[in-house]
Structure formats: structure tokens, C-alpha cells
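User: Thanks for the earlier help. One more: SRCR domain-containing protein. Can you show the sequence and predicted structure together?

Assistant: Of course, both are below.
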Amino acid sequence: MVSEDHQCAGWLEVFYNGTWGSVCRSPIEDITVSVICRQLACGDSGTLNSSVGLREGSRPKWVDGICCQKTDTSLALSF
């Protein structure tokens, strides 16, 4: 993910049960990327570069299919 102002960039991962894991193998809508950017204090919007391969390796895939609403203010996950 890259913020609109290019100040924030990196992999989106989740720390769960003592292990870092991948987030989103499927496409993420723009509104969801915006919610994530705001929550990470990276501005109001950003982009997800789908041409970059996932950073998988031996990491588990903890989360997929994230879809935020326009009214969401943060990305809250329950496992």
C-alpha cells in the first residue's frame, strides 16, 4: 500500500496469536484502502499496488476479503 502523499508505504500484515501473517489475497476496494490509510495516520487515501507479488513465504494468511463501509473509521478485526 502507498499513501496518496507517498509518505507511507509497505505491506499490510496482521499480528495474531504471536505470528505475523498476510492480509488480503483478493482485491481491496478504494474505500477500504482509505480507511486503512487514515487509521495508520497516512492521509485520507492511498493505493494498493496489485502488480506487486504478495509477501507470503512461510507466513500464514490471516485475513482476506476485507470490505469497509464509507462510515467506518477504523479497521477492526475479530478472530
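User: Great, one quick takeaway?

Assistant: The chain has one domain: 2-63.
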